[in-house]
Amino acid sequence: MLQNEAEKAIKRIQAQKGVEGVIVVNAEGIPIESNLDHQRTLHYTYNFQQLLTRTQRVMKDLDPQNEATLLDVQTEKNNILISTAKDYFMIAIKNSREGP
């Protein structure tokens, strides 16, 4: 994903009601775009990259012909979506108390 494509995607997602943050991470695990502060960006990136890697391993183990492309983590406070592509993944954090 090109830098300006990432910026456009972030703006489009951020415009949705209740979205608190969006992070785009490259294949090396480096955040390339985020609208969160640096510390929160690194915190979310590190933790969700590990979760995503483990989830992908489990999915490959269950069905080698299939792969995870979207992970949805729901908590009392947030709904966190992790979407994957070939060269990057995106984390979107939405307030659970806001409507769809």
Describe the structure.
It is a single chain. This protein has 100 residues and is α+β, with helices and mostly antiparallel strands. The chain has one domain: Dynein light chain 2a, cytoplasmic (Beta-Lactamase, 2-Layer Sandwich). Helices cover 37% and strands 32% of the residues. β1 (19-26) and β2 (31-34) form a beta hairpin. The chain is globular, with a radius of gyration of 14 Å.
The rough form would be described as globular
> How many strands in all?
5
Number of domains: 1
CATH H-level homologous superfamily name: Dynein light chain 2a, cytoplasmic
Residue ranges: pLDDT <50 for 5 or more in a row?
none
CATH class: Alpha Beta
Distance between the termini: 27 Å
**Could you tell me the strand content as a percent range?**
25-35%
Rg for CA atoms: 14 Å
Number of helices: 2
What is the mean pLDDT? 88
According to CATH, what is the topology? Beta-Lactamase
The largest sheet has its strands arranged as 2-1-5-4-3
What's the architecture in CATH terms?
A: 2-Layer Sandwich
Order of helices and strands: HEEHEEE
Helix content estimate: 25-40%
Sketch the major β-sheet: 5 strands, antiparallel
Pfam families: Robl_LC7
InterPro entries: Roadblock/LAMTOR2_dom
Family: Belongs to the GAMAD family.
Organism: Sinocyclocheilus rhinocerous
